[in-house]
TrEMBL record:
Keywords: Membrane, Transmembrane, Transmembrane helix. The chain crosses the membrane at residues 12-31. Pfam families: Abhydrolase_6 (PF12697). Coiled coil: none annotated. It comes from Thiocapsa rosea. PANTHER family: SLL1969 PROTEIN (PTHR37946). This is AB hydrolase-1 domain-containing protein. Residues 85-264 form the AB hydrolase-1 domain.
């Protein structure tokens, strides 16, 4: 075989390798889109096998996961202690989502804890981990749980399956739950979960030095089961949304809305509408375009969770802030103003701190 033929074969092999990889990815994507339950079972199986084969590499023993006290308060006895606050982050969160909220809660006198979990595993597994750690919380006062994004689903799953299941004794004892605040939670799912790979990169590139990095770093957090649970109509969401909520636990929703008509646009539309006039054939142009713009904003929501996905039957309507999914509670730059959801969270906490349990607003029952 001459040198020219050898070079040709090498180039052909180099060309076929990426084509083969692209074909494999395309086939996997096609199969996974049509078989989400089977895909989830396969991902769970892979996760379990990795845990069994490489227990040391897969074990979350770096002190990152679990219940972490962020601000501790010792009551002076002069007045009743405020409820504790437990924060639960969302999918592929690198760890800084609460950095703007925690100091504000501390200044308001609240004791703050954080729950961290392998945030790419199935939501039910993260819930089970919260249940396992729940007894570590002191039970001398009630707890308000605040969840951002997928963290809100973990809270709902924990309340309805572990802490206050309907018609059954609580499988886990401990501190009573005083209320739940869901911030940007996709209660009806989010299509953005399909782009989980980019969130995974953000998670591990932005992780602090306390996170133990290795070739298993991404797999240690799970094998992508969570993104299947987050899809609209997933088996997990169907089961979760069918469970009744305990009447004793109030729930509030906060969501983000990215779009609003600029002032210049609104003024121009009003001028055009006044110039043309309104008839049966030509209705008020400003009103038509404003309705269109509003529908666009509702579908976009905070950029990750549309407004329709925030709602839970029977729950109070969500409080809406003009912000992105993370921007609701976290600054992008230190010079940015305080995230808009933070004052609403503090207001709700203070309201619940004043209320007697019997006077609290009735929570939702699907």
């Amino acid at each position: 075989m001459n040198a020219k033929s050898v070079r040709f074969r090498r180039r052909l092999i180099l060309l076929l390798i990426p084509i083969g990889l692209l074909l494999a990815v395309a086939l996997w994507t096609w199969w996974a889109e049509g078989h989400p339950r089977e895909e989830r079972r396969l991902r769970v199986l892979v996760h379990d096998k990795l845990d069994a084969w490489f227990p040391q590499a897969m074990a979350p023993l770096d002190g990152w996961h679990g219940l972490i006290p962020r601000i501790q308060v010792v009551p002076d006895g002069a007045e009743p202690a405020l409820p504790r606050v437990l924060l639960v982050h969302g999918l592929d969160e690198p760890g800084d989502i609460w950095d703007d909220l925690i100091p504000v809660l501390g200044s308001a006198g609240f004791e703050v804890w954080e729950f961290r979990y392998p945030n790419d595993q199935g939501v039910d597994r993260s819930t089970d981990l919260l249940a396992a750690h729940w007894p570590e919380l002191p039970s001398d006062r009630p707890v308000v749980l605040i969840g951002h994004s997928m963290g809100g689903l973990i809270i709902r799953d924990f309340i309805t399956r572990w802490r206050s299941p309907a018609g059954a004794p609580a499988p886990v004892e401990g501190a009573p739950v005083h209320g739940v605040i869901l911030v940007g939670t996709p209660n009806q799912g989010s299509e953005w979960a399909r782009l989980r790979i980019w969130l995974e990169l953000r998670d591990h590139l932005a992780a602090g030095p306390e996170r133990r990095f290795s070739l298993f770093a991404g797999l240690r957090d799970g094998t992508g089961e969570a993104k299947i649970d987050l899809r609209p109509g997933s088996a997990f969401l169907e089961d979760l949304n069918a469970r009744p909520w305990p009447e004793s636990v109030p729930v509030r929703l906060i969501g983000g809305l990215l779009t609003e008509p600029p002032a210049s646009m609104a003024a121009s539309l009003e001028a055009i509408s006044a110039e043309i006039g309104s008839t049966d054939l030509a209705p008020d142009l400003a009103e038509v375009l404003e309705d269109w713009w509003s529908s666009l904003g509702e579908g976009l929501g905070d950029g990750v969770v549309p407004l329709d996905s925030l709602r839970i039957p029977g729950a109070p309507p969500p409080v809406l802030v003009r912000a992105s999914h993370r921007g609701m509670i976290a600054r992008l730059f230190p010079s940015d103003p305080e995230p808009e959801a933070i004052p609403h969270i503090v207001t709700i906490l203070k309201e619940w701190s004043r209320d007697e349990p019997r006077a609290r607003r009735k929570a939702y029952i699907p």
